[in-house]
């Protein structure tokens, strides 16, 4: 706290990891001597910059942009860019720290980073968004590169924004390289990148359920969010025979007791992305559903839950409610959606609980595969990528299992993910010397 005043999200993320790491390194002098945990918790650098842009009315607007390069011990910095008014240095430092562990867990050679701006894309015209992205990249370009730091999308940054930023990078540098991921298929993007995070979170859930000889068939699922991750998680649950009961956005959640089918998910996707609509409109479209303004969906009885909206959206009280309602598994699609108290509730109840750094790593994993395809200048087939994603999620599950076993059969995925991610990065850092 003293080292990072006014950075609650960052301190929370480090605290959560430190609890497990301290236990792991207790008898391992090499990590203490080199102060490895401290070094991972201090970003290599934080670049902060001004972003000026002109709105449609001709006003000059000023925003702040950041790129946090946390750690590149095992590969180039890699992590998304977020455009949202809630973005602060603390939020980006927490995300870059988490990303370091997540990327290590995928087994691919990627370091950890994150970036973004407090720019609010809501209500902005397409031209305004384009001008903002161009201005953002006009500064960012000097800090990134295909072998240095490879940003991607995140909240508020989808394929359109990546296009504007990539176009600006190319214009400034005259280089067509894989400097960003999440690109369009015509210009270096990878198949299944859009679906990867949501699908991956469900594959991870399947792996967890299998440890108790169960699968998703006939299970009810509560999902938060209605963006990229939430809608694709919903889609995969439906494909695997489960029933999705809820989706949400920052206005509240919808509950559809008949189940949110593929047709309904397609409507949500189109409504939220193309029409930029609200999830509350769902109830006008589909009878039998109800909208709960300003609420999160965790009180709805379910077998499995997937928080897929944002950080700290599932609190201790919500976690207790899920456990009391008989929920058996939670797979996080978002980053740190469960607060520290909620995490303790799930771990104490020995729920099958996957932290985002393990369960939502499918997105960055396919981004890693996009980098490989760019380096090879070729595109892999959809079936190949689907299989690779499944294998990568199974691999992450196995790594968590290796380090997270406790009390007989119970797997503490938080502990497993923290230790497995830490060990890989820490050993690489040690190989480079103690200072
Ligand atoms: P999107 O922007 O596509 O969707 C975000 C969703 O979360 C929207 O439904 C949004 O509602 C909702 N939301 C945002 N802020 C809040 C809030 N304060 N309270 C309630 N709901 C909120 O983002 P993604 O789906 O891409 O990302 C969701 C989460 O997953 C984030 O934590 C992200 O970091 C994480 N993630 C994403 C990856 C990816 O590949 N996309 C990879 C790994 C992690 P509204 O429309 O009202 O804003």
Q: What would the keywords be for this entry?
A:
435 residues; alpha/beta; Rossmann fold; 2 domains; seven-stranded mixed beta sheet; five-stranded mixed beta sheet; 16 helices; 12 strands; binds NADPH dihydro-nicotinamide-adenine-dinucleotide phosphate; Aminoacid_DH-like_N_sf; Glu/Leu/Phe/Val/Trp_DH; Glutamate dehydrogenase; glutamate dehydrogenase (NADP+) activity
Q: Helical element count?
A: 16
Q: What do the pLDDT scores average to?
A: 96
* CATH topology title of the largest domain: Rossmann fold
Q: Tell me the quaternary state.
A: single chain
Characterise this structure:
This protein is α/β, with parallel strands linked by helices and 435 residues long. It has helices spanning 8-25, 29-33, 36-40, 89-105, 126-140, 159-173, 193-210, 228-239, 262-274, 282-285, 316-324, 340-348, 356-359, 362-376, 382-404, 413-431; strands at 45-54, 60-71, 77-83, 112-117, 149-152, 220-224, 243-249, 252-255, 290-293, 304-307, 329-331, 352-354. The strands form two sheets. It has a seven-stranded mixed beta sheet, sandwiched between helices. Strands 1-2-4-3-5 form a five-stranded mixed beta sheet. The radius of gyration is 21 Å and the shape is globular. The chain binds NADPH dihydro-nicotinamide-adenine-dinucleotide phosphate. The site of NADPH dihydro-nicotinamide-adenine-dinucleotide phosphate (NDP) has 22 residues, from helix 8.
């Amino acid at each position: 706290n003293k080292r990072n005043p006014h950075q609650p999200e960052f301190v929370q993320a480090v605290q959560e990891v430190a609890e497990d790491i301290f236990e792991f390194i207790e008898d391992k002098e090499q990590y203490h001597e080199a102060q490895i945990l401290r070094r991972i918790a201090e970003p290599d650098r934080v670049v902060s910059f001004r972003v000026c842009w002109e709105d449609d009315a001709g006003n000059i607007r000023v925003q702040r942009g950041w790129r946090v390069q946390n750690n590149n011990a095992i590969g180039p910095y890699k992590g998304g860019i977020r455009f949202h008014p809630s973005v602060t240095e603390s939020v980006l430092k927490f995300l870059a720290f988490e990303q370091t562990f997540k990327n290590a867990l995928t087994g691919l050679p990627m370091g950890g980073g994150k970036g973004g701006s407090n720019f609010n894309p809501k209500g902005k015209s397409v031209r305004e968004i384009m001008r903002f992205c161009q201005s953002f990249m006009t500064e960012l370009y000097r800090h990134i590169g295909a072998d240095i730091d490879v940003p991607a999308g995140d909240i508020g940054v989808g394929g359109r924004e990546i296009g504007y930023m990539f176009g600006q990078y190319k214009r400034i540098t005259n280089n067509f390289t894989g400097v960003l991921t999440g690109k369009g298929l015509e210009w270096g993007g990878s198949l299944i990148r859009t679906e990867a995070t949501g699908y991956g979170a469900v594959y991870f859930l399947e792996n967890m359920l299998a440890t108790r000889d169960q699968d998703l068939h006939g299970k009810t699922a509560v999902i938060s969010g209605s963006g990229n991750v939430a809608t694709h998680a919903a889609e995969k649950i439906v494909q695997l025979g489960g029933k999705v009961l809820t989706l949400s956005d920052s206005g509240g959640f919808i509950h559809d007791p008949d189940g949110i089918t593929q047709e309904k998910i397609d409507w949500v996707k189109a409504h939220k992305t193309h029409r930029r609509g609200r999830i509350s409109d769902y109830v006008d479209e589909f009878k039998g559903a109800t909208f709960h303004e300003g609420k999160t969906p965790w009180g709805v009885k379910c077998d499995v839950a997937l928080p897929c909206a944002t950080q700290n959206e599932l609190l201790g009280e919500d976690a207790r409610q899920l456990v009391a309602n008989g929920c058996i598994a939670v797979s996080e699609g978002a980053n740190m959606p469960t607060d520290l108290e909620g995490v303790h509730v799930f771990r104490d109840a020995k729920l099958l609980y996957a932290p985002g750094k393990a369960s939502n790593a499918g997105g960055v994993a396919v981004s890693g595969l996009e980098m490989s395809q760019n380096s090879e200048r070729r595109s892999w087939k959809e079936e190949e990528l689907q299989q690779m994603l499944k294998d990568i999620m199974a691999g992450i599950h196995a790594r968590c299992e290796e380090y997270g076993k406790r009390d007989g059969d119970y797997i503490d995925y938080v502990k497993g993910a923290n230790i497995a991610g830490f060990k890989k990065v820490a050993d690489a850092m040690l190989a480079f010397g103690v200072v």
